[in-house]
Amino acid sequence: PSPASFNGAPYLSELPAMPTDLPGTDIKRAPLDSFRIAIAQHVSSSLGVDLNAALVAVGTGKIGDYTVAVPRFKLPGKPNEISEKAAAAFQPNEFLSKVEAKGPFLHYFLNSKTLIKLTLQTVHVMTHGYGAPRDEQGNTQPSYGTNRDGEGKNIIVEFSSPNIAKPFHAGHLRSTIIGAFLSNLYKANAWNVAKYNYLGDWGKQFGLLAVGWKLFGDEQKLQEDAVNTLFDVYVRINKLASEEEDGKGEKIHDEARQFFKKMEDGDKEALALWQKFRDLSIKKYIEVYDRLNVQFDVYSGESQVTKENIVKSLDQLKTHDFVTREDNGALLADLSKYKLEKAVIERRDGTPLYITRDIAEAAQRFDKSFDGNGFDKMIYVVASQQDLHLAQFFKVLELMGYEWAQKETSRLQHINFGMILGMSTRKGTVVFLDNILDETRDKMHEVMRANEAKYAQVENPERTADIVGMTAVKIQDMASKRINNYNFDWSRMLSFEGDTGPYLQYNHVRLCSVERKAKESDNLELPTSDLDLSSINLDLIAEPKARDLVMLLAQWPDTVKAAMKDHQPSTIVTYAFRLTHLISSCWEFLLVKGQEKDLALARLFVFRCCKDVLGSALRLLTITPLDRM
Length: 629
Ligand code: ARG
Hints:
Elements: H1 31-47, H2 51-56, E1 66-69, H3 79-88, E2 96-102, E3 105-110, H4 112-127, E4 154-158, H5 170-188, E5 192-199, H6 204-216, H7 219-224, H8 226-241, H9 248-264, H10 268-291, E6 298-301, H11 307-318, E7 323-325, E8 331-334, E9 342-346, H12 354-368, E10 377-381, H13 387-399, E11 412-415, E12 420-421, H14 433-449, H15 452-457, H16 461-478, E13 486-487, H17 490-494, H18 501-522, H19 544-554, H20 556-566, H21 569-586, H22 597-620
Parallel strand pairs: 4-5, 4-10, 5-6, 10-11, 12-13
Antiparallel strand pairs: 1-3, 2-3, 7-8, 8-9
GO cellular component, one term: mitochondrion
Catalytic activity: tRNA(Arg) + L-arginine + ATP = L-arginyl-tRNA(Arg) + AMP + diphosphate
EC number: 6.1.1.19
């Protein structure tokens, strides 16, 4: 069967048929949707309200699983009496076991047996079965939690965007982590995603770099690691250029300006050197990004905004009232009316600025992206230090009249974030990303070595240590609201206790090992990719703890949707921690070892589903879940 013939969990066909055309629902992918529809049906029939209106009124509450507030419907009569009447008309069914009327509220309790069966089967078929799409090699792509909401829509996510020859700083690291997550998130919601890296790859610094290259250039080093090599050259030449003695520094600056002028004028030789720096820097970036499990579709950058488009934007801008020529000759966009200050958009000497390129680049992207179809949305993941810059250039685009930049319907969004404080190695030196990643890896490697028996089982310990280290860095970054600053805290981040990355990996590894051991020592084998779930008797799962756990698994698709609304990685991280805490508290209630075979298998299946969902959460966060460590 192909994904097209996907009918959802086998158990779904044994249940009363549900309408499949209600907006925002997808009963094959999201188990809770069936229950919400069942509640809406009861509300609709007992109170005579529209089914869709009833559906959106189904919310979470403190009592039961879902709550409906009756006053919402503005019906004639007393809300308390109306809810009593609705409760009196309730008949338990496959989806709902009971309803309690308390004042104007209706509290619904889901049928646990159906909840458990439907949820676990859905997790399974969406992860290993026909509900999961396949890649070119035919491997299933776990997709429980995904939805089709964004089908046919295009988004550009611009993130990372470092500057060549300058340090890759904490702001770039956060942008990389958050931007890669958001790209995954949009994909999980069925959007077409194009990932852009907008490099700082043009400007006078390349003039300085060229002068420095003549003095201290080392071709071999450049080939090996352009990012660090060019930074060294840049630091050294800047030092020389700041020397006052004999006008030495001034001379260097003059030379640099001349070189950059040559670049601007299209001089072949100057451009060839610049191109080499750019290409080799990108090559090195790709390596570091790969290590972080991040890939880009487009390496754009300030250099890629064409002169033509800059001129076009400037000409267009000059026709607007908010743009004025200053006495000193600079061109100014006056945004003070909007509390956005004034922004220079063309220097006195006619050269464009950072903001000018951003304006022209946005228009260029709308014309060129997605085979000329343009974007439905474009997100810029940039530190909150640049809030004003982003607000200014969004405003300018709006005032220029671009339909896609109009306030109410704007397709542009700035995703900002706070700072990382104290990001330096443990020895205290401020550093490059590489050093940070190396140090986390080495530290994790040490921890792993301490357990010799386990260590011997790990196939590629170095890479595993690297992944755990990366998980530590990423989880620390995404654990709280984006806008918060946080301290780069080595000992906390690398600990296996508390809400840390290593703790999440540890839980995933434990789930994997339980399954391995059950197979090796008790010959318990779970279904992998087939749909034959009849060998698992889920009626045996009835513990209240197990129900809580399954309810949380059932909420995973909702969590993915919630993150789409708030664009907060912490929504996903918080879910992952809730899940691991609940799993930890379930080991003793859901013993596998020493149990009768059917029971052991059913419980093992619950843990397998937990592993699948935890794995999905980690992957969504751009983290590779580990099987051993
Ligand atoms: N390269 C810039 C910097 O490091 C960030 C670019 C952000 N993106 C943009 N379209 N302006 O500060």
